[in-house]
Amino acid sequence: MLKIKEYIIEKALFMCALITVLTTAGIILILTVEAFSFFRNVSLYDFFTDPQWTPLYSEKHFGILSLLAGTFLTTVIAIMVALPVGMGIAIYLSEYAPRSFRKIIKPLLELLAAVPTVVYGFFALMVVTPFLQNIIPGVSGFNALSAGIVMGVMIIPFISSMSEDALHAVPKSLREAAYGMGSTRLQTVFRVTIPSASSGITASTILAISRAIGETMIVTIAAGQMPGLTLNPLKPVQTITAYIVQVSSGDVQFGSLEHQSIFAAGISLFALTFILNSVSFWIKKKYRIQYE
Amino acid sequence: MLKESGEMKDRIKGGSYMLESKNVNVFYGDKKVLQDVTLQVPENTVTALIGPSGCGKSTYLRLFNRMNDYIENFRKEGDILIDGKDIYRKDAEIEELRKTVGMVFQKPNPFPKSIYENVAYGLRIQGINNKDVLDEAVEKSIKKAALWDEVKDDLKKNALALSGGQQQRLCIARTLAVEPSIILMDEPASALDPISTAKIESLIYELKQNYTIVVVTHNMHQAGRISDKTGFFYLGELVEFGDTKQIFTNPKNKKTENYISGRFG
């Protein structure tokens, strides 16, 4: 009787694991199949070189570069905000803050990641953009800068939390060695602790980039829906994710070329984040052994 | 740097001890871990501090480069003098102190950098980046640490690829590069195999010519082999201090005798 129970539970747990694997496989399959029919109508060459992305206009162009430019721009802005702030927080918490303070502040920071992204998007559109319009002339109502900055705030905990873990994991003996030779606290942090934690810091940054690339709500609300091959942060742009939202929520006919285009965009997005996550995973795994 | 330490040595020959502690008590919070320790270490000698685990010998050693300062609730009473000067005085510069008082730790702790960069580190943080100066200092220090023949062809190799014994000699080289006059060693051979241990011991003997060395060890035989003076700590007190020969052959205190003869520890 007991054995049967064990058997059932074991199989049930296995099914749970299987569901996630099957879901991923299913997503990849659908993306590939639909993207395949898309690429029967649009050549890969056009897809990667056409400077315009206008599937919803009468004159259709399918150049993914325009969407990539939007994604790239908002992501770069986000990282430029999140990396210095996140690292600053990580260094402070790991090297300077009293232990009791660290215990309180770290979970609070992680709450930043728990704020619904639609709230962030609204915040970008209604608060940050008007603020930017006040100090920088020529900022559009929808723009990459505002969305990028707010997205940067959202991913701060990705960088600060994982980097703090990496810094904290640097053995005390290395810090003592540095102090023992007359290093100041700052020298110890920048010449010993950070280089020793570099693999963890790099991995956290890549994960944060990956998160920013995949972020949808903030950019859909605040960055606009104007795909264009531009790197001007003051103008509206459209990211890959925002385009997918636009088409999925619109009245595009199922099975049409416009409809298929979101799968082509989707598979590009998937490839991008998949590669970044794999690189992050690989870096962490490769360099983890160092201290053991 | 060199000139300074040269002058310092002359002054010491004029009278004061290289290292000295006067009626030192140490507390971690409410717990007293060292009790009224008074001890003098002459220049260019090796002093061994022995005693069972938890007797306070490492804590005592770390007073001399202020390494205990990082421990929360650490408190000290009494004076710690180096070359006659109180190193805990208000205007004392910890970084400067640690350039004079180097330290080698129990577990080899090279930085995850190249062999070369490990040894150059102490100079780089002082703003010395001239390649010729660094090259010379690196070679000199590694030679002094008796490691040169083993690593001279792969100075660019990561230090973590070296064996434990080699890593420890690299850590000694790294310490020597800063040109200290005192070297504190906290059980420098306890994590090493017998052959590596023998190498470290003969190295300590060599270094005595130019440095004042204090070694913490729980290996009594090691203390007997390498040191001129020995101090026996027990439960936070310095039970007995004297010439190594006398401590090992004719201890005055019953506790020392028991420890030396292996009755506890």
Would you state the CATH class of the domain at 68-225 and 268-287 in chain A? Mainly Alpha
Based on DSSP secondary structure assignment, what is the total number of beta strands of chain B? 10
What is the rounded distance between the termini of chain B?
42 Å
The biggest sheet of chain B amounts to: 6 strands, mixed
Please give the share of residues in helix of chain A: over 70%
Mean pLDDT of chain B: 90
Please provide the ordered H/E string of secondary-structure elements of chain B: HEEEHEEHEHHHHEHEHEEHH
At the first level of CATH, the class of the domain at 12-109 and 183-260 in chain B is: Alpha Beta
Percentage of residues in strands of chain B = 15-25%
Q: How large a portion of the residues of chain A is in β-strands, by DSSP E?
A: under 5%
CATH architect. name of the domain at 68-225 and 268-287 in chain A: Orthogonal Bundle
Report how far apart the termini of chain A are. Answer: 45 Å
Morphology call of chain B: globular
- What oligomeric state is this? heterodimer
Biggest interface: chains and residue counts? A-B, 20 and 28 residues
SSE ordering of chain A: HHHHHHHHHHHH
CATH superfamily of the domain at 12-109 and 183-260 in chain B: P-loop containing nucleotide triphosphate hydrolases
**Gyration radius of chain A, in Å:** 23 Å
In the CATH hierarchy, the architecture of the domain at 12-109 and 183-260 in chain B is 3-Layer(aba) Sandwich
